[in-house]
UniProtKB/TrEMBL annotation:
Its EC number is 3.5.99.6. It is an enzyme of class 3 (hydrolase). It catalyses: alpha-D-glucosamine 6-phosphate + H2O = beta-D-fructose 6-phosphate + NH4(+). The keyword Coiled coil does not apply. Pfam families: Glucosamine_iso. This is Glucosamine-6-phosphate deaminase. Belongs to the glucosamine/galactosamine-6-phosphate isomerase family. NagB subfamily. GO terms for cellular component: cytoplasm. The active site is at residues 73, 142, 144, 149. SUPFAM superfamilies: NagB/RpiA/CoA transferase-like. Catalyzes the reversible isomerization-deamination of glucosamine 6-phosphate (GlcN6P) to form fructose 6-phosphate (Fru6P) and ammonium ion. Pathway: Amino-sugar metabolism; N-acetylneuraminate degradation; D-fructose 6-phosphate from N-acetylneuraminate: step 5/5. Residues 23-234 form the Glucosamine/galactosamine-6-phosphate isomerase domain.
Length: 266
């Protein structure tokens, strides 16, 4: 075990279970600190987590009134009211369905004229709000986190990135044509992500298994941006079985929990 660094890995039976586990962690965070600052992600991976959080809000009154959120990224040139934007995604899938204050939800501004200045403003704002307590991450097939593509600079803060062809292809499923996928995004940098107090990495599906292996037990290197998470002191990885398929059965310094069926109605 490297110092006191330890990843906790939770393998669940399904995509839905992965979402439930993740939502439980977020709910636990809010229970202890109702005015938490959450770092949030888009993509299909966190959708069941958002659904479960909404269900917890409706059934148990899970309270978001004091919560502040910062999203990882946004496409460059995409206005918040564009249905393909991450602003729109977050409103549709989460913000509009819980009692979070709209002026407490932040995403990088993809329309900013000076993207470098916007990156600095965004990071400064995160610190001004006390820093991120819990950062939720998905992972790209090339092991990107946020939009930090392979060969990223680990010291980067929020900045403009050119997307990899692989990422553009993967994200084209949300667009009518491949040519419509933006080629640039503004994303929290690795340093911004690593400054979060706790990190929750989610992945499901066989197409993420290799990226998960690199993140959890590959060499720490810029070619696999998520591998940097091995150096963070409080990371929980929640997977479905397919995404966990390439992990060795035993990992030194890693606590693997298996959470099988434990389920009841949503
Ligand atoms: N910028 C996002 C990432 O934050 C996300 O983790 C990744 C995986 O997306 P999905 O969850 O849809 O597989 O895609 C995008 O590129």
């Amino acid at each position: 075990m490297k110092g006191d660094v330890m990843m906790r890995i939770i393998i669940t039976d399904s995509y839905r279970q992965m979402g439930r586990e993740a939502a439980n962690m977020v709910a636990g965070q809010l229970y202890l600190k109702p005015d938490s600052v959450l770092g949030l992600a888009t993509g299909s991976t966190p959708l069941p987590m958002y659904r479960r959080l909404i269900a917890l809000h409706r059934s148990l009154g899970l309270d978001f009134s004091e919560v502040t959120t910062f999203n990882l990224d946004e496409y460059v040139g995409m206005a918040p009211d564009n249905p393909q934007s991450y602003h729109y995604f977050m409103n549709e899938n989460f913000f509009s369905k819980v009692n979070i204050r709209p002026d407490h939800t932040y995403l990088p501004d993809g329309m900013a004229e000076d993207l470098e200045a916007e990156g600095h403003r965004y990071d400064a704002l995160i610190q001004q709000k006390g820093g991120i307590d819990l950062q939720v991450l998905g992972i790209g097939q090339n092991a990107h986190i946020g939009f930090n593509e392979p060969d990223v600079k680990f010291e980067a803060i929020t900045h403009c990135v050119e997307l990899d062809e692989e990422t553009i292809r993967a994200n084209s499923r949300f667009f009518q044509r491949l040519e419509d996928v933006p080629r640039y995004a503004i994303s929290m940098g690795i340093k911004t992500i690593m400054m979060a107090r706790r990190i929750l990495l989610l992945a499901n599906g066989a197409n993420k298994a290799e990226a998960v292996r690199k993140a959890v037990c590959g060499s720490v290197m810029p070619e696999a941006p998520a591998s940097i998470l091995q150096l963070h002191r409080d990371v929980t990885v929640i997977l479905d079985r397919a995404a966990a398929a390439r992990l060795p059965a035993h990992l030194e310094g890693t606590k693997i929990l298996y959470k099988g069926r434990m389920d009841h109605a949503e």
